[in-house]
Amino acid sequence: MAVDPRFNMTIERDASNAEIDAGLRSHMLKVYNLMALGVGVTGLICFFVATNMALLQALMPISFVFLLASIGVGWFAPKVIMSKSMGAAQGMFWAYAALLALGIAPMVAMYLNTNPMIVARAFLISAGMFAGASLVGYTTKKNLSGMGQFMMMAMIGILILAVVNIFLGSTLLSLGVSFAMVILLAGMTAYETQEIKSMYLSAPSEEVARRLGIMGALQLYSSFVIMFIHVLNILGIMNSDD
């Protein structure tokens, strides 16, 4: 009895799709695991700073130096991750995580020492928003690239306002900037998740996919931590006695 060749083609196509889906799930799990480890390192650094008063006092005046350094590392990270050794690629991720952690540690430490529940609430809110936004980015069929470009431009404008507010010292403007950043970062998380998924599916080799995974983890880590900081700022302002 002859077998319809279309039947064999269907089986082969289904098997191929199942293999791709399994590979994608494994890739995304590695990305999330690396990102979570980065967040864990940030938490440990902040806790260490918060429990060491001498170190906390030393870091407060120079925290902006670490923030600027993290921006510099983030700028060069994609080139290093994609063109240098795997060790250098991993090193860029951990260097960025450590520098950003040192930059935000005094702010987080301040809340840990005064009202730890605000930090816990900020983390839970950020984790929930991040998970929801990332799920949307992973499952949606809509192309989010246009939205991603718009949010990047909007974020630049918000950052300019944040810099201006350093000199103005307006609590209301600070609150508005943080609300805007949280919304934009949720959108960016969805966009970045979709990009990580798309880049994996178009990666020409396993090594390239691994490098893209490190870069994706770096992007998601940055979005989560910055979202957490702005949620923390919102809760801090709303719970202040001023």
Quick recap:
With 242 residues, the chain is an all-alpha fold.
Give an overview of the whole structure:
This protein is mainly alpha-helical and 242 residues long. It has 8 helices and no strands. It has one domain. It is 89% helix and 0% strand.
Question: End-to-end distance, in Å?
Answer: 85 Å
What fraction of the residues are assigned to beta strands by DSSP? Answer: under 5%
The coarse overall form would be: globular
N-to-C SSE string, H for helix and E for strand: HHHHHHHH
Estimate nothing, just give the exact number of structural domains.
Answer: 1
- As a whole number of angstroms, the C-alpha radius of gyration is 21 Å
**Count of DSSP-assigned helices:** 8
* Overall SS class: mainly alpha
- Number of E-state strands: 0
Stretches with pLDDT under 50, minimum 5 residues = 11-15
Secondary-structure blueprint of this entry?
Elements: H1 5-50, H2 53-59, H3 63-83, H4 86-114, H5 116-139, H6 145-168, H7 171-202, H8 206-238
Task: Name the features.
mainly alpha; about 240 residues; globular
